[in-house]
Amino acid sequence: MKVQQMLTMLLRVMLMAPLMFIGAVILALTIDPVLSMWLIAPLPIIVGAVFLISKKAVPLFKSLQQKNDRLTLVLREGLTGLRTIRAFNRVDKEQVRFNKMNVDVSDTAMNANKLMVSLTPIMMFVLNFSLIFLIWFGAFRIEGGSLMVGELMAFIQYAMQMMFAVTIASVMIVAIPRAAVSANRILEVLDTVSEDQGTRETWHTDAGKGLLEFRQVSFRYPGAEKPVIQEVSFTAKPGETTAIVGGTGAGKTTLIQLIPRLFAGDSGSILLDGVDIRDIPHEHVRAQIGYVPQQSFLFKGTIAENIRHGYESATDEEVQHAASIAQATEFVSNMKDGFDSTLAQQGTNVSGGQRQRLAIARALVRKPGLYLFDDSFSALDFHTHTLLRQALQKEAGAATVIIATQQVESIKQADQIVVLSEGAVAGIGSHEELLKDCTVYQEMVAAKQAEEVTA
Ligand SMILES: Nc1ncnc2c1ncn2[C@@H]1O[C@H](COP(=O)(O)OP(=O)(O)O)[C@@H](O)[C@H]1O
Ligand SMILES: [Mg+2]
Q1: Average pLDDT of 113-122?
Q2: Band (376; pLDDT cuts 50, 70, 90)
Q3: Lowest CB count within 10 Å: 20, 49, 51, 322, which one?
């Protein structure tokens, strides 16, 4: 692993300082063991000082790193939420919040660094004193004839080398706690393994397949108290439209995301054409799926490029065909460069409804065996929605279509409706069947009608 290599390199550089130090001491000992004592004597004092100071400074550096983290967070929120902040007149409040974080970070940095810089004068003081003694006692020994001037000069050189080593070490000591905090974070990401990658290469779908079956599937977000999906079972057949209805927070998005394995279920199993999706490599599962997420995310680039994210080698005709089913042709051709018009980062230069239609076209161009639409028509007007659904019906043909929505009236025609309430199935059936014997569904329809009456 790259990071580990970097860490070993750092370790080697760190070893350099003690080696220089020990080398100087050994050389000194070979010349005059007694005088060498004046080189070694300051060692315990220096080690003690380093130990005491870094014991105080390391926690400070750790918290500094965390505070830096929070400062970045506040800064990022301020930049991405700029319009929201302005619209709610929160500019001053946000400024205060940012200033507070900023002052907090700089205070901690000051304290930590003040501690660390106090190390250098202490070390210099001690080492220079040992140098004085060295010259003092060296002078007596030269006078007594047991030491030569050149040998004393060598001693002074060794002392210099030791000082240099100690300086390097103190720089390292400052860097280590910070590097350790950062390295741990990087390692956390690198060490996360994608769990149970299936290996069943024999599995493949032919056009017209895409039978999806949920068997007692439960799922809980990591760290959450309650499962958001509870023992859900249903079967979505090829050539049919299965609707998943439920209010906000019912678990529709979560349920949909379990299918391309964006999250892995805790218990139960999801089967695609009779094979557990855990036994199929992720890429194979995803290759069969045309997924339109609730939040239509587009990339910086041209419209054609964005649609081709669904299928790299789509021809121009295929791209245009997908766009026409998604009812995007009209607004795309009204743009200056048509399909070659550039989208801004995250597609912010087109409207929400236009973004949604491009995201739909991106899924359609794959010609998948299984379509997943997560609240994908919410930003479309009634007329566009009707046209799109009619075109989609024809295009999907023998594929399996799953539509998650909270708008009951839009999925009356679905072959099968799964009513989701707080993560559990409250009823399965056609519109008529559910109207007869599913209270949750009745309530949803009634609420919708009441809304229409008042409107
Ligand atoms: N990333 C997440 N981490 C933890 N809880 C989540 C996350 N996303 C959604 N939830 C919780 O799961 C529940 C279902 O959410 P979601 O599947 O988005 O519902 P829906 O799409 O039906 O509105 C919600 O109560 C929400 O609080
Ligand atoms: Mg949702």
Answers
A1: 86
A2: very high
A3: 51
Report whether pLDDT(396) > 80: yes
Is 11 a residue whose pLDDT tops 80?
no
Question: How many CB atoms are closer than 10 A to CB 344?
Answer: 11
The number of distinct structural domains making up the chain is 2
Do 174 and 233 lie in a common domain? no
Q: In this structure, what token pair is assigned to residue 195?
A: 């769990």
CA dihedral 183, 184, 190, 191 (to 10 degrees): 150
Using 50, 70 and 90 to split pLDDT, how confident is the model at 92? very high
- Looking at residues 78-101, what average pLDDT do you find? 92
Ligand found nearest the CA of 248 = 1
- Burial label for 84, CB within 10 Å (0-12, 13-18, 19+), is exposed
As a whole number of Å, the end-to-end CA separation of the chain is 62
* Helical (H) or strand (E) element with 231: strand 229-236
What is the pLDDT confidence band of residue 39, given thresholds at 50, 70 and 90?
Answer: confident
Is 250 a pocket residue for ligand 1 (Cβ < 6 Å)?
yes
Q: Is residue 198 part of a domain?
A: no
Determine contact, residues 366/290, Cβ cutoff 8 Å: yes
Q: Which pLDDT belongs to residue 228?
A: 94
User: Ligand 1: which of 220, 253, 378, 402 to mutate, most ligand atoms within 8 Å of CB?
Assistant: 253
* Cα-only R_g, the chain: 35
| Nearest alpha-carbon partner for 18 in 125, 166, 146 | 166
Nearest CA owner, ligand 1 atom 16: 251
CA 454, CA 111: separation in Å to the nearest integer? 64
| Residue 264, domain CATH | 3.40.50.300
Question: Are 184 and 269 contained in the same domain?
Answer: no
Do both 312 and 222 map to the same domain? yes
Which pair of tokens denotes residue 401?
């279509």
């997560």: which residue's tokens? 374
What pTM does this model have? 0.74
Which listed ligand is nearest to 244 at the C-alpha? Answer: 1
Closest atom of ligand 1 to CA, residue 420: 22
Q: 75 is in which domain, residue-wise?
A: 2-191
φ, ψ dihedrals at 219, nearest 5°: -150, 140
- pLDDT of 206 > 60? The answer is no
How many residues does the structure list for the chain? 455
Which residue is listed with tokens 């979505």? Answer: 236
Per residue in 213-239, pLDDT (tens digit) is: 999 999 999 888 899 999 999 999 999
Cβ(192) – ligand 1 distance below 6 Å: no
Q: pLDDT for 145-168, tens place per residue?
A: 888 999 999 988 988 888 888 778
Ligand 1 nearest atom to the CA of residue 375, by list position: 21
